[in-house]
């Protein structure tokens, strides 16, 4: 796991990495799930892939395209011939 040499790495991510290296991937996955940060999600994805649980990994850590597709879309507004909004600013 990258980041073990970085002093700002969350100790729980380091603990999860040590559990994974010790052959306890289920315990590592539990630790990372409990942490719940973006970095923990990335690490959890890696642990699950190493366990052959790719479907679960994809559900935990979707691709950028999937994340963008899930984002709410801005409401479209009618535009005038000049390309500016016909609605007054809010």
Which percent band covers the strand fraction?
under 5%
Question: In terms of structural class, how would the helical and strand content be classed?
Answer: mainly alpha
- Number of H- or I-type helical stretches: 5
Tell me about the largest β-sheet.
Answer: none
Order of helices and strands: HHHHH
Q: Percent helix among the residues?
A: 40-55%
Shape: elongated
Please give the radius of gyration in angstroms. Answer: 21 Å
Euclidean distance between termini CA atoms: 48 Å
Number of strands: 0
Overview of the structural elements:
- This protein has 90 residues and is mostly helical.
- It has 5 helices and no strands.
- The chain has helices at residues 11-21, 25-35, 38-50, 54-60, 64-70.
- Helix 1 packs antiparallel against helix 2 (25-35), helix 2 (25-35) runs antiparallel to helix 3 and helix 3 (38-50) runs antiparallel to helix 4.
- The longest helix has 13 residues, at 38-50.
- The model has no long low-confidence stretch (mean pLDDT 76).
